[in-house]
Design goal:
The protein is an alpha/beta fold and 291 residues long. It has 14 helices and 8 strands.
């Protein structure tokens, strides 16, 4: 049955965000727990009248408190690079690499002493938890990249396809490279690997008695140049895969971001038989495709 592209596109979703997409709170709590003792030691600086000398004393007695400092500036890492009138230098916070006085200078010039001495925060554990939450929000892009994988995997499982079971009639495997597929099933995929020069990885591979399916998944909530590049890339991949006996390329994609790149997506839609959306999965395409 011929599908209408515009009708197909009209069913694309705005979002597939889950509850834990926005903030990974278990990760936030774990990161804070690892430095909670040191943060509580630094709490003694809050409102201190002689904060600089008190800080130097703390660093001399408890040098491990330094590892908290980058987080207080919302920096993910063990070092901070500074450029001033003296030039550029790197402060290390995973080990003592400067004098306590130099670290105190960093605290003063970065504004952290002012934050603490003026009592603008009352508890560094709470403050750091807020900072960690903000930093974790930057991970949404990575989590978003996996959301569509979770959707596809759930539908594979609902259709009765088992994971990683070589003895099952139908089985799926996650994140397999072309070389792994070739080695496992003895199929020649050189047509899509530039004669072995490109080591592509598929999000999923489904093996049935008659066919091996290489699957790509993605979801785009917003537009951008990457969408056009993706559509063109998968169009090429689809044409190359057509020449491989026993192998089929399948692409599951969705998201209103495709509206801005609809022309390139439509070009791929016209030549890629197995291009599906979330609605297609909800309508049972897994049962029809993986027989």
């Amino acid at each position: 049955m011929t599908r209408d592209f515009n009708t197909w596109l009209s069913h694309f979703k705005t979002s597939i965000a889950t509850y834990d997409y926005y903030v990974d709170f278990p990760k936030v709590y774990q990161n804070i727990d690892s430095i909670k003792v040191e943060l509580n030691i630094l709490n003694t600086l809050i409102g201190h009248s002689d904060i600089e000398n008190e800080f130097i004393r703390l660093v001399e007695k408890y040098p491990e408190v330094l590892k908290c400092v980058p987080l207080l500036l919302a920096v993910r890492g063990k070092e901070v690079e500074i450029t001033d009138e003296k030039g550029s230098r790197i402060y290390r916070f995973d080990k003592i690499a400067s004098t306590p006085q130099e670290y105190a200078e960093f605290m003063r010039k970065s504004g952290l002493f002012s934050l603490l001495q003026r009592h603008l925060v009352s508890n560094l554990v709470d403050y750091a938890t807020g900072v960690e939450t903000g930093l974790d929000s930057n991970g949404r892009k990575n989590r978003g990249g996996h959301l569509m994988e979770h959707v596809v995997e759930s539908h594979l499982q609902k259709s009765g396809i088992t994971k990683g079971d070589d003895n099952a009639p139908k089985s799926y495997y996650s994140e397999m490279y072309i070389s792994e597929i070739q080695k496992k099933w003895g199929i020649d995929l050189s047509a899509i690997s530039n004669r072995g020069k490109a080591e592509k990885r598929f999000d999923f591979v489904v093996k049935t008695p008659k066919m091996i399916y290489g699957i790509e998944t993605n979801f785009y909530a917003s537009g951008g140049s990457k969408l056009n590049e993706t559509a063109r890339s998968y169009k090429t991949l689809a044409l190359e895969a057509n020449n491989i006996p026993g192998f089929t390329f399948v692409w599951f994609t969705d998201g209103k971001g495709w509206t801005s790149a609809r022309n390139n997506l439509e070009e791929t839609f016209d030549i890629l038989t197995h291009l599906y959306s979330i609605k297609d999965m909800e309508d049972g395409i897994m049962d029809k495709l993986f027989k």
